[in-house]
# Entry
Amino acid sequence: MTRDQAAKVAPLDPGADAVAEIVNEHGRAMYRVAIAVVRDSALAEDVVQEATITAWLKLDSFRGDGSFRGWLLRIVHNTAVSMVRSSRERPWDPEWIPPGTAPSAERQVVAAIELDAAIRTFARLDPLSRTIMALREGEGLTYDEIAEVLGVTIGQVKIRLLRARRRLAAAVERGEP
# Structure
């Protein structure tokens, strides 16, 4: 497929503006996938930048078999996994999760404990499960789309999502990691 054909399917102008279009249309989703894998905001930004360049350079390889968004998020996921493998584990900064509001001081304390438990549990999930959670809960992708993006079976998506949700729910219920 040529870049012109890819642009019709994508719909992106394969010229210099394609990078801006990728970032404007998909940048937030790309970042959420990256942060789910790498757990570091600075590294996630690097992943998004690298994946954007890779997508632009390989725009002519987009065949149109699936959605452009799925193709792009798969590039982000693969880039993030590669960066994690090539760098040592770094602590996760949970600042990207907005703090909850509560009507009373007691509820604020309970919410803080629950949030801390969820963050710690989410951080301990394996990278694939974190990514599946981010794609499903954050991006609203279907099981089929997630399986396509990550190159796994729908069964793997469902079971990992179920297990991750159960772990998070149990941690929040106990109020401890």
Observations:
- DSSP finds eight helices and no strands in the chain.
- The chain has two domains: 3-86, 97-174.
- Residues 97-174 form a domain with the Arc Repressor Mutant, subunit A fold (CATH 1.10.10.10).
